[in-house]
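Entry 14: structure prediction run for NADPH-dependent FMN reductase-like domain-containing protein. Input pasted below.
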Amino acid sequence: MSTIILNGSPKGKNGNSEIFIKQFLKGMKTPCEVKCISKENPSTLAEYVKGFDTIILALPLYIHSMPGVTMRFIEHLEPAETSENKSIGFILQGGFPESCQYKYVERYFGSLSKELNRNYLGTVIKGNSANIHGMPSFMKRKLFTVLESLGEIYERTHTFDKAIIESLKRPYEFSGFDLKIMKFVTKIGLVNSMWNKSLKQNGAFDKNLDKPFLQKN
Ligand SMILES: Cc1cc2nc3c(=O)[nH]c(=O)nc-3n(C[C@H](O)[C@H](O)[C@H](O)COP(=O)(O)O)c2cc1C
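Run finished. Output tokens:
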């Protein structure tokens, strides 16, 4: 069965989605083809992926949704003529740690699979991943091992392992002590420190309250 992995991040090979893809491929004995949506013509790519039994879309959550380049590509996809041996699965990662934040996109992926007449492998969701590129190895070792197993099991069974999906999804929502910690960390400004640093590095900190789409009268 042929598989193609599509990287749905606008950052392409320089992003965190690529790190997820690499770990998934590490688990496969025969790694499959990977293409970056942002580097391709959406209609040509949609035509190309038709020939594959399985499409795996690995992407980040941007503004509670999917990146524009991915959305534009999806609009070019056509339903498979028959669902026999045709599947689609999603690997979704982002900065928000609670997986409840990803549920709307997850639901959409479920309906999209039906629309495309492809069997739904499921959506792997992993929050708290915005810093993954800069994390020391010991902090990401466990996640990397799990992603490798996901790839290994996928190659063997053509399914996404349900136990892995469940484990990566945690926490769904903060509660109890974790919630108290989060509230404290938010109050002292630690949650925003990473965003503010990035805004400052790009000379955009002073514009962080700009509303460029608001009509000026
Ligand atoms: C413009 C922008 C918007 C983002 N919006 C969200 C969001 O709504 N939810 C979330 O969990 N993470 C959000 N993030 C964090 C990214 O999902 C996270 O950094 C991810 O790992 C980026 O993956 P990539 O490097 O493959 O693009 C956002 C990041 C950027 C730059």
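Notes: Strands lie at 3-7, 33-36, 54-60, 87-93, 119-126. Will compare against the previous run tomorrow.
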